[in-house]
């Protein structure tokens, strides 16, 4: 089974869209574990309301808001996961109906997958958030106009899906295209490296550190582009005051490996 580890913080309107998109999957052999980094009761109330009629199990993990501690709550979610395969997703992302099926198709022993995202602008994001419910067909029917108006920054990866193959494999570690909002690995491998580095607090590069340590253990990183794209809702940039320090620490680990 697949466990979707869904990170969220104080944006229930976006989380609602995300969960609704997960409720329309072609493949329902998965569970959802919401890794909540200290949201208010608005998020809890939303989850409880959605849980009642949701097609798969939803577990809500919450920790007190003491600043950005995504690594800590994600590690709790990894431990709680019933599935042997983990798909990481953020609550400000909306998925396509084949999201789970595509991740399942790309899953492979001794591999991890880093997917990609399609960025939505502020205007289109507000439009989608105003919909009473997520409607994948309505969105797809207007895809070309969204692209022409600048609402989305990519078109073809949402229309054309490419299959599996060795061409997806990265030969070495690269920073490019590591998105914590869309990646996957086996639970056993995540546990073997001790999960995310909880000493990395504040926004930035905790996902790159996680991927580097998996690759450093011998896993092969596979691209999930042209298969697993998520729609990333626009929001203001997070506080990046810790990003430079987090990046420095990842670079130190990479240099130590090279030596």
UniProtKB/TrEMBL annotation:
Q: Which residues form a coiled coil?
A: none
Question: What's a single GO MF annotation on this record?
Answer: transferase activity
Q: Using the record's annotation, list all stretches that form the Glycosyltransferase 2-like domain.
A: 3-141
Keywords of this protein's UniProt record, alphabetized? Transferase
Could you tell me which Pfam families the record lists for this protein? Glyco_transf_7C (PF02709), Glycos_transf_2 (PF00535)
This protein's record includes keyword Flavoprotein: no
| Tree of life domain | Bacteria
UniProt protein name? Glycosyltransferases involved in cell wall biogenesis
Residue stretches making up the Galactosyltransferase C-terminal domain? 172-235
Question: InterPro entries, per this entry?
Answer: Galactosyl_T_C, Glyco_trans_2-like, Glycosyltransf_2, Nucleotide-diphossugar_trans
């Amino acid at each position: 089974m697949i466990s979707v580890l869904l990170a969220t913080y104080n944006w229930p309107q976006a989380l609602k869209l995300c969960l609704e998109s997960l409720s329309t999957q072609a493949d329902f052999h998965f569970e959802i574990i919401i890794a909540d980094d200290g949201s208010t009761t608005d998020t809890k109330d939303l989850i409880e309301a959605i849980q009642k009629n949701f097609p798969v199990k939803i577990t809500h993990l919450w920790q007190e808001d003491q600043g950005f501690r995504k690594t800590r709550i994600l590690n709790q979610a990894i431990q709680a996961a019933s599935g042997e395969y983990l798909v990481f997703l953020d609550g400000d992302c909306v998925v396509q109906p084949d999201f789970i099926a595509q991740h399942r198709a790309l899953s492979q022993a001794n591999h991890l997958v880093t997917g990609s995202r399609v960025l939505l602008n502020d205007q289109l994001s507000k439009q989608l958030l105003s919909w009473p419910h997520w409607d994948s067909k309505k969105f797809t029917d207007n895809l070309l106009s969204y692209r022409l108006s600048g609402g989305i920054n990519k078109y073809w990866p949402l229309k054309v899906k490419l299959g599996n193959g060795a061409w997806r494999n990265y030969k070495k570690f690269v920073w490019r295209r590591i998105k914590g909002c869309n990646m996957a690995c086996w639970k056993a491998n995540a546990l073997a490296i001790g999960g995310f580095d909880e000493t990395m607090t504040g926004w930035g590069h905790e996902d790159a550190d996680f991927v580097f340590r998996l690759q450093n253990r011998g896993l092969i990183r596979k691209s999930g582009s042209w298969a697993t794209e998520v729609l990333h809702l626009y929001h203001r940039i997070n506080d990046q005051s810790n990003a430079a320090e987090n990046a420095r620490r990842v670079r130190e680990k990479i240099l130590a490996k090279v030596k």
